[in-house]
Structures are given as C-alpha cells and as structure tokens.
C-alpha cells in the first residue's frame, strides 16, 4: 500500500479539498464489521473523488490487556471502498487523520455557521 | 634485520599499546556522545510526537481561513521550528531528512531575507504537509522502538 509519507500527503490533500469545499463528504450509518461487541462507530463519512470512494470514521475499540481486562481505545480509519461498501484498501495510520475528521465535521453547515449565527444575528 | 630485532623490546610494545589505548579512548568518547544523543531522543519520542502533532493540527484548523489567521500560523511555524531543531539532534535516517526539509521550508517562509518567497496559502500548506510527514515518520519510529528495534 502507501508509505507513511504518501499517506500523510494524501490526507493533507483531502483536508485541503474538504476545507475549500472541493469535495463534500456524505454521512452514513455504520455497518458491520466496523461495529460489533468490541468496536463502536458513531458516524461514517464517505466521498467520491477521482472515481474512488473514500471512507473515514472514528472507531472506538476494546484493547485487551489480557483475556478479560480491556481498555477502550480509538483510531481513525481512512479506506478505499467499492460501490457496495467492501474495503479495497486501508491507509496506514498517521496522526493527521484526526485533522481530516475535524475538517469533515466542520464542513457540516450546522457547525461551521454556528459562530456567525450566534453573534451576527 | 638486527635493527628490527632491537625494536622488538617490551618497552616499544608498551609505547605502541599506549598509543592504541589513547586512540580507543578518543573513539569511545566520540561514540559516547552519539549514544547519549540517541538515548535522549528515544526517551523523548512521545513528547516530540505529541507536540509536533498538536502544532500541526492547530495549523490545519487555522488553514481553514488563511487570510484571517496568517499571523497565528506564522507563530505556530516558529514554534514548530524550535521543536524540529530539538528533534534533529538525535534523529536519523528518513526522519532527519524530513526534519531538515521542513526546517528549511519554515526558515524560507519566515525569514525576511527571502523576500521573493510567496507567503501564501500554498506555501503554508506545503510546510504543514512537511510537518504531517515528520509526525507520521515519528509515529512509526515510536512503534519500531516499542517492538525493540
């Protein structure tokens, strides 16, 4: 797959395109296998860019310390999927994936216009 | 032949051993400094990763509106440069190359001498991507340290 350098560059480019509204992410409900007894996902975001479906979401998952003890951890997953939602490939984990999720969430007009609506109305 | 045999005395062996010992001491000292830098870096990888990721994330949010936040972005670039300088001392391989590249971009962007350099959103995003690459390299470096590399 891609190297960590390429992944960081890809994600930064997606952030730029999102912030300039050149790509618009749609939200979807999570489906199995991304959710289950050991994993939770609140919302999934998907976009079609250059003919590829890209999906991003924050997954909370149980990290087992031994057979019974576990702690909840979280990770941002950015992956390519086909038209039916099957995973074609997943990008390696990089810290800037969190910034992508923030940019996607801020793209929601309900959120990004709140400041103006609150103080300028 | 006689002259050569005369040189093979215990006294001469002692002198050569002293010279070899001195060279070994110098080499050990030099290696010690390298090892010290390496261990200091290894012990602070978590700290560096947290700081550079935080700065990079803040810059990313500010780039939402470059013209409004240009001053704040430049301040964060200065902070990133300080952090990268501290990291460069113990880093090696691809990581050090990426750190040097990012520092060079930041210096060109913030320096008044490079007046011909465009201080626009594209060059700011180029620096931000450089920081993201450093932070990704550092993340994988941290993981390789965990498995004992």
Topology:
The complex is a heterodimer of chains A (121) and B (149).
Chain A: H1 4-19, E1 26-28, E2 39-49, E3 52-64, E4 70-81, E5 87-90, H2 97-106, H3 109-112, H4 114-120
Chain B: H1 2-7, H2 10-43, H3 45-62, H4 66-88, H5 93-110, H6 121-146
Describe this structure in words.
The complex is a heterodimer of chains A (121) and B (149). With 121 residues, chain A is an alpha+beta fold. Chain A has one domain (4-108). Helix content of chain A is 31%, strand content 36%. Chain A has helices at 4-19, 97-106, 109-112, 114-120; strands spanning 26-28, 39-49, 52-64, 70-81, 87-90. Chain A has a five-stranded antiparallel sheet with strand order 1-2-3-4-5. Chain A is globular and about 55 Å long. The relative contact order of chain A is 0.18. The model of chain A has no long low-confidence stretch (mean pLDDT 92). Chain B has 149 residues and is an all-alpha fold. Chain B folds into two domains: 2-38; 44-146. Chain B has helices at residues 2-7, 10-43, 45-62, 66-88, 93-110, 121-146. In chain B, α4 (66-88) crosses α5. The mean pLDDT of chain B is 88. The interface between A and B is medium-sized, with 19 and 20 residues.
